[in-house]
UniProtKB/TrEMBL annotation:
Organism listed in the record: Aquimarina hainanensis
Top-level taxon of origin: Bacteria
Protein name (record): SDR family NAD(P)-dependent oxidoreductase
Keyword Oxidoreductase: yes
Keywords in alphabetical order: Oxidoreductase
Signal peptide from the UniProt entry: none
Family of this protein: Belongs to the short-chain dehydrogenases/reductases (SDR) family.
Lineage: Bacteria, Pseudomonadati, Bacteroidota, Flavobacteriia, Flavobacteriales
Keyword Calcium: no
Length: 250
């Protein structure tokens, strides 16, 4: 049985991915800061597969390395890494941007992803096998108004994804990114700091992607035969044409 390490498993895409991969008999290491949610998910999925949880903040470099190093022997060989944890913080023109928001996006979406990867990739290299999926965004592919720093953080994920694939290619490790458009999760609640008046309308007037839609695609990607690497995948809801063009007339 394979083992997958999923960051950001307490909510949205990460949580749905855990549920979906359990159906495929993949053992799980589930991460996030909200331990009570991790415990609840572990209890639910342990009926199907082995589950280990790690509660830590991926901004904390020492803690990230320590937590991953602490994995019990039966969870040490990670076959699949899903670098999913991340969020947008704020939606402001650059001249009004909040520096704490900028720090959060760069520290979580970029540096946190690198810390986790640094802890896991050497094991994959020594085993000469592994599969890494980086969750980017359409924000990696085009910049939209007031989202410059979030888009920059996801462009960095896109570049890191390509860099990983180049460097890990000779070690037999598959690397690919999935770039979703609008997915109805807690994403907008986080972006607007709990302000539901701003978060709810983001997903109104059209059918957004669901976390399950992305989880389904991730399950497809990780179950392809070894010689198939889905390297770069952009997924929009049908109502969305670009980051800024959304058909809300239906
Ligand atoms: P959610 O807000 O629902 O989930 C975000 C997850 O990231 C949570 O599990 C959260 O866990 C975790 N996380 C956030 N900050 C940290 C941190 N400092 N340390 C550890 N874990 C953290 O959003 P989504 O499911 O939508 O987002 C998942 C990924 O998908 C993100 O990378 C996002 O950028 C990307 N994405 C989302 C889209 C969307 O429209 N929703 C579209 C394109 C990409 P906890 O708070 O418990 O730590
Ligand atoms: C999330 C997509 O366009 O809401 O990465 O920022 S968007």
């Amino acid at each position: 049985m394979k083992t997958a390490f999923i960051t950001g498993a307490t909510s949205g895409i990460g949580k749905s991915t855990a549920i979906e991969l359990a159906k495929h008999q993949i053992n799980l290491i589930l991460c996030g800061r909200r331990k009570e949610r991790l415990l609840a998910l572990k209890e639910e999925l342990e009926k199907q597969v082995q589950v280990h949880i790690l509660a830590f903040d991926i901004r904390d470099r020492e803690e990230t390395l320590k937590q991953i190093d602490s994995l019990p022997d039966n969870f040490k060989n990670i076959d699949i890494l899903i670098n999913n944890a991340g969020n947008a913080h704020g939606l402001d023109p650059i001249q009004e941007g909040n520096i704490d928001d900028w720090d959060a996006m760069i520290d979580i979406n970029v540096k946190g992803l690198l810390y986790v990867s640094k802890a896991i990739i050497p094991g994959m290299v020594s085993r000469q096998s592994g599969h890494i999926i980086n969750i980017g965004s359409i924000a990696a592919k085009s910049v939209y108004p007031n989202g410059g720093v979030y888009c920059a953080s996801k462009s960095a994920v896109d570049a890191i994804n390509t860099g990983m694939r180049i460097d890990l290619n000779k070690h037999g490790i598959r690397v690919g990114a999935i770039h979703p458009g609008l997915v109805a999760t807690e994403f907008s609640e986080v972006r607007f700091k709990g302000d539901q008046q701003k978060a709810i309308p983001v997903y109104e007037g059209y059918t957004p992607l669901s976390a399950e839609d992305i989880a389904d695609i991730i399950a497809f990607v990780v179950t392809r035969p070894y010689h198939v690497n889905i390297a770069d995948l952009v997924v929009y809801p049908t109502a969305q044409a670009t980051a800024s063009i959304i058909n809300k007339t239906s």
